[in-house]
Amino acid sequence: MGKLERLKALIDDWSRRSGETGARVGCDLFCFRTGKRWGIDANKGFTPASNQKLWTTLVALDELGPDYRWRTRFAAGSGCLYIRGGGDPSFDESCALRVACELKERGLTRLDEVRLDDGLSSGHPWGKGWMWDDLAHGYGAPIHALIMERNRVTFHFDPVSEPPKIVRVSPRFCQGAAQTMLNWTEKPEAEVEIFRIGAEQFEIKGEISRREPELEAAVAQGPEFFAEVMIGALREKGVIVSEGIRVIRGPFSERADIRMDRVSPTLAEVLHQVNKESDNLTAEVLLRTIGMARRGTLSEEEGLLRVMDWFRKAGLQAPAVIADGSGLSGYNQATPEALLNILIWAYRNDPLFPVWLDSLPRYGRDGTLKNRTAVLPQRVEVAAKTGSLAGVRNLSGYFLNNEGEPLLSFSFLINGLLEEENGEKLQDQFLQLAVTKWVN
Predict the structure, then answer these.
(1) Contact call for residues 61 and 271 (beta carbons, < 8 A)
(2) CA 73 and chain centroid, separation
(3) Mean pLDDT across the stretch 88-117?
(4) Percent of the chain at pLDDT exceeding 90
(5) Residue 142 carries which DSSP code?
(6) What is the pLDDT of residue 440?
């Protein structure tokens, strides 16, 4: 039986056994040793979901360089703290505590006012085509130049309580609270609804997994959330915070007595947030940062134009529709062929390929593929990007040898699922077929 026949038989058998007769499956594969390529419906359009992050991260790496860093600026004087955001997607409570300690050491003793400069951000704080009921979930957090803890509140639950009970909220200095109506579930995909009823107050309904007893909710305004956590950090470090402290939007002061900057980790490090963890906010920051060179602000529109320019310069046909940087938008459309083309091109042509490859999840080891359990030979590793939305399960990446060199590249897209778990089962079966029959 030939490659295509085996592949078709696998999909047909899965469709019959799972009851997913309405699901669409498209795939494209390429063997680097033989140069042979084969697939099914490889030129048909699919919703790529987070496979969108493959080109977002590759273009960002090429356009910005692996050593690129974001900068957050602080200034203080006469009881006022000025903060200018630079789009750093990694800034968190631990960073706030370090900055607070340094500000205190440099002479900030009292705080009466915080002025927030989010002027580097332009356009809407969400991606084009994001659905309204995604915007209170952690994966739909708003994009600003000032970002704290990825603009989300995390609720931690006691895994032995009945029903699930919140035992901790992070970051510590936020005012996050939630009304919950939850049950425990053993299903790998917990179904939960999150509604924002205040800036950091939520209503949470549905199910939560005991294996991952925490839920993330998106705040309403990133800059004000940043200020809230920063004020808490300063108070903990001994700065006197006035009872009627004001938090307002305003320009950054270049003349304040105390000035300091905090720079982010390198882009090469931040890529792990995007690909391994599949963080949407960070992907959108990358897209907008790509556009900053021409527009001067974090611009989604300009970022999309520069991504299209990159495809033209690389001699690659761009996907049919690129609406955002993360893949959360339902407007995006791509083919398995387009995804495979960029995987092949990256390995053959991009000098930064090792950095990009290192950011992809490893099957059964880390990131969004950590809990996958299909048995693969010890001599072979799978590095691939997942893509998940309602009814969508996608996987695109590489089979690697012991030296980390690609043997086979693939894009395997499944849309229209009734049960997303069925899609992951087919992915596992596909990987086992590929590794036993086509990987040499």
Answers:
(1) yes
(2) 24
(3) 97
(4) 90
(5) P
(6) 63
Rg from Cα positions in the chain: 23
How far from chain centre, in Å, is Cα 431?
A: 24
Question: 97-110 burial, b if ≥16 CB within 10 A, otherwise e?
Answer: bebbbebbeeebee
| 409: pLDDT strictly greater than 80 | yes
* Domains in the chain: boundaries: 3-66+268-437, 71-222
Calculate the alpha carbon distances from 407 to 100, 120, 343 in Å. 49, 43, 12
Answer whether the bond into residue 163 is a cis peptide, omega within 30°. yes
Distances (CA, A) of 34 to 278, 408, 438, 439: 32, 10, 10, 11
Residue 2 has pLDDT above 90, yes or no: no
Report CA dihedral (223, 227, 229, 230) to the nearest 10 degrees.
130
CA distance 14 to 380: 24
CATH of 3-66+268-437, picked from 3.40.710.10, 3.40.50.410, 1.10.287.770, 3.40.1710.10, is 3.40.710.10
Nearest CA to 433 out of 29, 48, 19 is that of 29
